[in-house]
Amino acid sequence: MAWSYRKRIKIIPGVHLNLSKNGISTSIGVKGANMTFGKSGTFINTNILGIHNRHKLSGVNNPLPSNYNPPIVELGDNIFSRDIQEITSQNMQGVKEAIILAHQQRKELKIDLLKVQTTIGGSKLKLTTSYILLYGLIKKSISEKIKIDIKKQQETIKQLKEQIENCYVKLDVNFEPEIQEKYNKLINSFKNLANSHKIWDVTSAHYQDRIATRSSASTLVRKREVRFGIKTLPDIKSNFETLYFQNANGADLYFYPNFILMFSSKTQFAIIGLDELTFNQSYVRFTETGFVPKDSKIIDRTWFKVNKNGTPDKRFKGNYQIPVVKYGEIKLHTQTGLNEEYEFSNYEFTEQFGNAFREYQNTIKSLKQL
Questions:
Q1: pTM over 0.90
Q2: Burial, 47: exposed, middle or buried (Cβ in 10 Å; 0-12, 13-18, 19+)?
């Protein structure tokens, strides 16, 4: 019996976004019909488209004197976003469904590919066996039939790989020149920001008694080093660059021209309209007990153990001076539950990005109101 295979594939809707002075228009969907794998893996229809000033003490993973006994503090006030399933914007559900469809379809195609690869392995084994046992040489029609099946299976594998490669949500964005210029400015400032020597995700902040701890910092924070960059998700392909924020204690953030995608896994993610985001950029006076990043500026000095009036506490033997540096800070918040905070060793880059982001976001907000 000739090998045959049949699989029905759905059309993946594309997302078309138009940003102009007349407002923002978004359409979801593509023209075309369903595609079917016919007998022997033949494709019948292949139309698929896929300013704030806080004084903080780092106090985490920094070398301290051997005679230092830190006070027992319970770290509260954790900084993290709500459950990923709770914060998708109502008007972004269609985009989310299209991305889920792309993921599910790619997963199904990979399963199909594995089945065909297993089948072709069996066919090749049959062909080899027919020659070893000579019946493939005596009755050549048997081996020829197997060869035809192998050829068809190889073609199906090739086509399946192509469909897996093209199984994504196509995000087309049309910018008017003025808006495109602002987005380019945002991208360029972000690339500079991503090159900061250190980027941290602040995961908790807790008030501490300065008198009891003899510290110049009123807030104790925990933070973890993360990275930023230009990066996109495999389920989305677009004609522009996307901003990527790594999240140390939750879903990573991807900034697209009109929305933020919070990605935890291929089935666990949220999409939030950019106009819903409350964005704050400022600076932090940070009492740095570790090493000072090469692109940070020391703006003051204090003592490891300090009196209320700023003088060194002489009761501590070996008390020494420590630098106060100026770090950049960005806070992201939405009413639906996004809550993230980042610090950057390069304040100038943070300020440049903050200005570019606010300018672009204000443009998006004004277009939404039209």
A1: no
A2: exposed
Closest-CA residue to 336 (of 26, 83, 97): 83
User: What pLDDT score does 313 carry?
Assistant: 66
Question: Distance (Å, rounded) from C-alpha 136 to C-alpha 291?
Answer: 74
With 0-12 / 13-18 / 19 or more C-beta atoms within 10 angstroms meaning exposed / middle / buried, residue 266 is middle
Residue 303 C-beta-side C-alpha neighbours within 13 Å: 19
Q: Which residues of 168-179 are buried (b: 16+ CB within 10 A; e: fewer)?
A: bbbbebebeeeb
pLDDT for residue 83 = 78
Tell me the per-residue pLDDT of 309-330, one tens digit each, with 9 for 90 and over: 667 667 777 776 888 999 999 9
- The pLDDT score that the predictor gives to residue 131 is 61
CA angle 122, 37, 145 (to 5 degrees): 40
Q: Which residue has the tokens 């490669």?
A: 165
Q: What is the dihedral sign for C-alpha 15, 18, 19, 24? A: negative
Tell me the sheet residues that pair with 342.
Answer: 201, 330
| CA–CA distance, 2 with 174 (Å, rounded to integer) | 49
Count of Cβ atoms closer than 10 Å to residue 210 Cβ: 17
Non-local (6+) Cβ contacts of 1 within 8 A are: none
The full length of the chain comes to 370
d(C-alpha 99, C-alpha 97), whole Å? 5
What H or E segment, with its residue span, contains residue 219? strand 219-225
The pLDDT value recorded for residue 19 is: 84
For residues 81 and 94, give the distance between their C-alpha atoms in angstroms, rounded to a whole number: 22
Residue 258 is classified by DSSP as S
Confidence (pLDDT) at 139: 63
pLDDT of residue 21: 80
d(CA 253, CA 232): 10
Question: How far apart are the C-alpha atoms of 367 and 24, rounded to whole Å?
Answer: 6
Contacts of 196 by beta carbon, 8 Å cutoff, 6+ apart: 293, 295, 328, 344, 345, 346, 349, 350
